[in-house]
Amino acid sequence: MEQSFYLERLLKLKSNFSVKIISGVRGVGKTTLLKAFAENLRAEGVSTAEIISIDCEADERFKNFQAFYEFVATQTADLEKFFLLVYEIDRVSECEKAINALFVGAPAEIYVTCSNELLAEKIYALLPDNCDVLRMYPPSFAEYKTHFPTEEVLQNYLHFGGLPSTFGANKNSWQRILRGAAYEIMFELVEKNHLSRPDLFHLLIKTLAQNVGKSINLNQLAEQFGSSFGTLKNYLSCAAGLFRKIPRFDAKAEKFLVGLEKFYCVDNGLLSVFATVNENILVENAVCVELWQRGYEVSSVKFGAMNISFVGERSGKKIFVQIMTADYPSARRASRPLRALPNDVEKILITSKPEKNLGDVRSLTLQNFLSNL
After folding, report:
1. Interatomic CA distance for residues 240 and 285, integer angstroms
2. Nearest-5° Cα angle at 64, 61 to 70
3. Total domain count for the chain?
4. Among candidate residues 110, 135, 160, the one where a domain is terminated
5. Could you read off the pLDDT of 138-175 as tens digits, one per residue?
């Protein structure tokens, strides 16, 4: 499932003096990716003895970080250099301590998979200058449509998302499969983060789903939940694997605005499990995820009194994307804030049909945009 895209990015990080964290919700293909990476190492001539693979979910010995560290130290004592590939590192308690010790004291290239975004942040905090995070998302629409080449492919993707567990399934089974996957992910996040109030976490997830694309006041939300702000903030961090926060960018002032964050779900199918949302929200969520999948850091945009759906930034370059909805009666009006932007940025208007005479603004249908055309 789109492994070549992520494998290429992972291979570019090889030989960096850093810890590589492959993060993403359960079921997106992290294990498959790391196994493909191991095969690539062997093909390059790395001996099997120099590739230490540990499955922390399957092996009960490594629940404690000390046992994990001692095992690796014993296995690698005579090696001048080795590759440490760890599956589901978040199953090891206080694993960040072991990763830090191994990174500092051993000649290791360290690669770990992690379903817990909060843990990925902890490891990054310990090694801010020596840590690379590769976030994986469910397969993109371009990949999805190779498995479901039908006239309904776009609608199916918008409503059921791209989790690999739905590939090959009967259409009538998709809701059941997605519901099972969604609640398994939620249970795992509660368990791995030792959350004392799973009811509050569930309520938070449902609230984020119901308010996708809307600015959320966290102080008001904490008061509504009868929770402290600190607890809510911690639970939001734990939910980051499912719902990612995007900041708000003032395009005229060229600065980020504080306290006006929005949240989007990493997969439309999971979003549809947690809340019933309209077609416009499904489109908006799918566009945001597509930008993440392409490696962009995404923000919502304020441009004077007008709004632009998203700006994505990657390698110093920006792409502005406006989604035309019923709020904009014409493509020309919808593209107005885009046309006012500098000419050195990419500008895309997503419409129901291609439009002309929009200056340097490209008009694309949603299907063409998601197909990366």
Report:
1. 15
2. 75
3. 2
4. 135
5. 989 998 888 877 778 999 999 999 888 888 777 788 88
Sequence-separated (6 or more) residues with CB below 8 Å from residue 77? none
172 and 239 in a single domain? The answer is yes
Report the range out of 97-101, 208-212, 249-253, 312-316 with the highest average pLDDT: 208-212
Could you give the 3-state DSSP secondary structure of residue 201?
A: helix
CB 54 within 8 A of CB 133: no
CB 322 within 8 A of CB 308: yes
Name the strands in the sheet holding 131-135, side by side, starting at the edge strand that comes first in the sequence. 51-55, 82-87, 108-114, 19-23, 131-135
Vertex 355: Cα angle to 352 and 358 (nearest 5) = 130
CA distances from 288 to 131, 136, 246, 260, 335 (A): 25, 14, 10, 17, 18
Encode pLDDT of 114-143 as tens digits: 887 877 888 888 887 888 888 899 989 998
Single residue among 116, 135, 154 that ends a domain in this structure: 135
Range of the structural domain that residue 354 is part of: 141-370
Looking at the fold, whether 317 and 201 belong to one and the same domain comes out as yes
Contact 324, 280 (CB under 8 A): no
- Helices 65-75 and 95-105 cross at an angle (nearest 10°) of 30
332 shares its domain with 221:
yes
Task: Please determine, for residue 327, whether its predicted confidence score (pLDDT) is greater than 70.
Answer: no
**Where is pLDDT greater, at 277 or 325?**
277
The pTM (predicted TM-score) of the whole model is 0.88
Residue 187 shares a structural domain with residue 147: yes
Residues 216 and 292 in one domain: yes
Task: Give which of 235, 231, 136, 232 is closest to 189, Cα–Cα.
Answer: 235
CATH number at residue 37: 3.40.50.300
